[in-house]
Amino acid sequence: MGTSTTTTEKAAGPAKAGAAPSPAPPGGRRRKRTLGVQNAAGWLFSTPFLVLFAVFMAFPILATLAMSFTDFGLRNVTRPWEAEFIGFENYVNLFGDEKFLKSLFNTGYFVVVGVPLTIGIGLVVAVLLNNGIDRARTFFRVGFYAPVVTTIVAVAVVWRFVLDPSDGLIAGLFSEVGWTAPDFLGSETLAMPSLIVMAVWRNVGTVMVLFIAGLQAIPTEVREAAKLDGASVWQEFRSVTIPLLRPTVLYATVITTIGYLNVFEEPFVMTQGGPSDSTLTVSLNMYREGFNFFHMGYASAMAYVLFVVIMGITVLQLRLLKDNTK
Predict the structure, then answer these.
(1) Which phi and psi angles does 263 have, rounded to 5°?
(2) Any residues with CB less than 8 A from the CB of 117 and at least 6 apart, and which?
(3) Lowest-confidence region among 93-97, 244-248, 302-306, 321-325
(4) Torsion angle, CA of 20/25/26/30, rounded to 10 degrees?
């Protein structure tokens, strides 16, 4: 019996060692097939977006980058292959161009003044609408947000009437006290501040909505605990609300800064960059060079300089403000 058992085990051992692996269970194959079908369906439904993105986003971005190293002009629109490669000449010329440097300074001025005003006023309005106003709250929210969805043409018509030095609303108020209203849009000193005021008025609604969402996400228990500890309204706002709103402040600051660095509509519609280029921004300067003077290679280089500036400032903001959100 012992010999027979041993012989059987020896015979069975090599057979087990050399046996082919058992096939995957039907459930595993079915799962892989399902995932494959889902992936194929996902790519199929994504195809329209991918085609549109490639044609209208990726290709123009890469083409603009290539154009920035050439002297691409009006003559090359129908024969782009004849554009001459000039390397970094456009980029070098930019920083010797007084008009570009002036537009860069104007854009920085617009951002440095406009962003803090927009964030600050948006926060104040959000706090008032979230806590301080009980009646007609929806009406005020819609009223503050309405300029965001209003076209720039309508906004320009309203603000031209308000700022008109002879028949405008402000001119009427000045005349009531015997003063003469300044020419806001015709003054080199007042034109840019006037555009900043208009931009803040137009964009504060977006920031307000973000801050209202952030305020409503703060747990009521935290505020109640602060009140029980004897914190005043200001102490609660400074020590509880602001720290918990820092992620919202970060997001609002970044998107507002990016938008203001790309400012184009306000000076284009209201002042055309004047007077004496005092409201000329980088985007407006880029538009002029590309579509008025047809220096498309030069305008493309300007666009990529602005892109690098936006990326650098955004990264800096994320690093500085993100550290405070932890």
Answers:
(1) -55, 125
(2) 196, 200
(3) 321-325
(4) -110
Residue 156 has pLDDT above 90, yes or no: no
Instruction: Please state, in angstroms and as integers, the Cα–Cα distance from residue 142 to each residue in 122, 147, 290, following that order.
Output: 14, 9, 38
* pTM (predicted TM-score): 0.82
The SS3 of residue 25 is coil
The reported pLDDT for the residue numbered 2 is 47
| Nearest CA among 165, 206, 191 for reference residue 274 | 191
Distances (CA, A) of 37 to 30, 40, 42: 11, 5, 9
By three-state DSSP, how is residue 70 classified? strand
- Structure-block tokens of residue 209: 């909505």
Phi, psi of 70 (to 5 degrees): -130, 175
Strand partners, 85: 70
Whole-Å CA distances, 145 to 192, 201, 258, 266: 23, 10, 20, 18
Structure tokens at 149: 């969805």
Residue written as tokens 């400074």?
238
Residue that the structure tokens 């008009």 belong to: 99
Say which residue the tokens 């190293």 belong to.
69
Structure-block tokens of residue 262: 């790309």
Beta bridge partners of 70: 85
Q: Residues 95-151: pLDDT tens digits?
A: 999 999 999 999 999 999 999 999 999 999 998 888 766 666 777 788 888 888 888
| Per-residue confidence (pLDDT) for residue 23, from 0 to 100 | 56
Interatomic CA distance for residues 326 and 318, integer angstroms:
12
Q: pLDDT above 90 covers what percent of the chain?
A: 46
pLDDT tens-place string over residues 31-54: 777 787 888 888 899 999 999 999
